[in-house]
Write a structure and sequence with these properties.
single chain, 24 helices, Rossmann fold, GMP Synthetase, Chain A, domain 3, 26 strands, 5-stranded mixed sheet, 601 residues, alpha/beta
Length: 601
């Protein structure tokens, strides 16, 4: 008799869903405007076919499979197939620079690399580690005949290989809770990115805890649209799907999200703040359209009522019964039609995570009857560690720990987390593992916070200088700054972009070097305050920034900058005695400069 998958693995969840709901929808794609759906039975069979193919290619337990592809069914299948082999998946951000791709490849050491098409194949084929070690390259899409020795996914996975059944079952039966299921590479404060080790036990607990908290305790329908290299996307597209037996629609590009919302009408929708900001613009256009302009009075009354009711709850104030009833009625009228036009009328849980979201965005959606809850966590905590519960959002708070998780505040104010979702550490980085944990298994988050009288967590600062953009991308500013500082006449650099849509920078100029450049370009004048605005000077600074950007991923690249004539010093307060940037001081003193960089067309 063949062995069954270990109940400690995510493989057992897939087998369970395929047995309990074989004909229910599992994953879908939109092709030519039509929904193409794979049932749970078919989904599992595709995973088994791919896993059998991976075994034929020699994949061993605990080896790595890297995936460089968009949000598509084959990506999910390849990921789960890797787990079924007892191996470990790592998804690569498509925005990584060549240098960053090379680092992750050499650190993860994949035996197999799955890419989406010719462009990705060409990028991967040039990585020095790949050239030297020759992993198997598998292309999901090919143009004509393979030209670089790669295998074609459809040919590789066609048909079930019965001879691999026993090996597959044996691999799955051997999986334990503390075996790694994926590596998620995340930026640190300095240096190259680190691969966070997440185990089968981490992800099974995390998915179960989210359901127990009531965040996905429903008929689960979600859209997969953020990069699967992001822990939040992995959680709701892979692991929550397995936990709930729900239905996920793969969206190939985030800029098509609005279309996919209207087609699929999810029950569960999580977005990073930047996505909510874009959806707000779409909603404002919708409200101004002829469809709803004739109902303006009704919409205004309803929105005012909902905004008032939400604001009182958000400030922990009592809500009169009359206002509660008015708000309930307001949700049923024209505002329901607005939510339907957005594709969110069936959403039972809408959330924001990965970065702080502005109160005005929360208030706007609350006025439409869409209450956005917030959560907090790190890749190292397996994703969510703390979150609001439905109807409990409060100003400045990110909620309560998930069931089974604990939080506390260290003596220096740092937030500590202890839970079954905590990663055991980093791949190949025992030095970083030691820094990650405090005594007693408490994970150091690097964030500063407090716990209020209701037990809710409030994040007040960051212990480390990580930028989290509005899109939820973690960015180490020093990794950007060192590539610009000291080039040409540029002296110091401060990268900025926390909770903003993109990164900008302040550059200071060394006066002597600036004057030398001006003379070489036959620019008259010797006043640095005038020279920093000269077109030739700005063009040279732009060249320095462009060179730095060529080594950075798209989210890290500096989109705009301001060149300053005055350098920062210890005496003037912008530098510490050890010449480190006092970021908060610079942010305050140059608030207008930074604001102007986001106001440019």
């Amino acid at each position: 008799m063949l062995q069954t998958p270990s109940t400690q693995s995510i493989c057992a969840l897939l087998e369970q869903q395929a047995r309990l709901r074989p004909q229910a929808p599992a994953v879908s794609e939109l092709r030519d405007g039509e929904l193409h759906t794979m049932t749970w039975a078919n989904y599992r069979q595709c995973v088994i076919d791919a896993a059998s193919a991976f075994l034929d290619l020699g994949l061993q337990a605990r080896e790595t499979v890297a995936i460089l592809a968009g949000n598509r069914v084959e990506h999910l299948v390849a990921d789960l197939a890797t787990a079924h082999c007892g191996a470990v998946s790592v998804t690569l951000y498509p925005t990584l620079s060549a240098e960053q791709l090379a680092h992750v490849a050499s650190d993860a050491e994949p035996r197999i690399i799955v890419v989406d098409g010719p462009a990705s194949l060409a990028r991967v084929a040039e990585i020095p580690w790949v050239v030297q070690n020759r992993p198997v390259l598998v292309a999901l899409d090919v143009d004509g005949e393979p030209t670089q020795g790669e295998l074609h996914w459809q040919e590789l996975t066609a048909g079930h290989r019965a001879q691999q059944d026993a090996t597959l079952r044996s691999r799955q039966a051997a999986i334990r809770a503390d075996d790694p299921v994926t590596y998620v590479y995340t930026s640190g404060t300095t240096g190259p990115s680190k691969g966070v080790v997440l185990t089968h036990g981490n992800m099974r607990w995390m998915a179960g805890a989210v359901v127990r908290a009531g965040l996905a305790d429903c008929e689960y329908r979600a859209i997969s649209y953020l990069p699967l290299a992001h822990i939040a996307e992995r959680l709701w597209s892979v692991y929550l799907l397995l936990q709930t037996g729900g239905h996920v629609l793969c969206c190939p590009a985030p800029d098509r999200l609005a279309e996919y919302l209207r087609v699929f009408r999810p029950s569960f929708f999580m977005a990073v703040p930047r996505v909510w900001e874009k959806l707000r613009l779409g909603a404002e256009r919708l409200l101004a359209s002829p469809t709803f302009s004739s109902r303006e009075d009704e919409l205004t009354r309803g929105r005012d009522t909902l905004r008032c009711e939400w604001a009182q709850r958000y400030d922990d104030a009592p809500v009169p019964a009359a206002l509660r009833m008015q708000a309930a009625l307001a949700r049923e009228g024209a505002l329901r039609d607005v939510r339907a036009a957005l594709g969110l009328e069936r959403a039972l849980m809408t959330a924001s995570a990965a970065a702080p979201i502005a109160d005005d965005v929360l208030s706007f959606f609350a006025s439409l009857g869409i209450e956005i809850i917030q959560g907090y966590g790190l890749t190292e905590t397996g994703g969510v560690a703390v979150c609001d519960r439905l109807g409990t959002a409060s100003r400045g708070s990110v909620g309560l720990p998930l069931p089974g998780a604990e939080i506390r505040i260290a003596g220096d104010g740092e937030i500590l987390v202890r839970s079954p979702g905590n990663a055991p550490g980093y791949r190949n980085r025992p030095d970083a593992d030691a820094e990650l944990f405090a005594t007693g298994g408490w994970l150091r988050t690097g964030d500063i916070g407090r716990i209020d009288e209701a037990g809710r967590l409030h994040i007040t600062d960051r212990k480390k200088d990580i930028i989290i953009t509005a899109a939820g991308k973690n960015i180490a500013p020093t990794a950007i700054e060192f590539r610009v500082a000291g080039r040409s006449f540029v002296d110091q650099v401060l990268a900025f972009g926390d909770a903003r849509p993109y990164v900008v920078a302040l550059l200071t100029a060394t006066p002597e070097n600036l004057l030398e450049f001006a003379r070489s370009q036959h620019i008259s004048g010797a006043d640095p305050h005038e020279l920093v605005h000269h077109p030739a000077v700005l063009a040279r600074a732009q060249c320095v920034v462009d060179e730095a950007n060529s080594h950075l991923s798209r989210p890290e690249q500096i989109k705009r900058f301001r060149l300053l004539a005055t350098t920062w010093t210890v005496e003037s307060g912008e530098l510490t005695p050890t010449f480190k940037l006092r970021r908060s001081v610079i942010h305050h003193r140059h608030a207008d400069d930074l604001a102007a960089l986001y106001q440019q067309p």
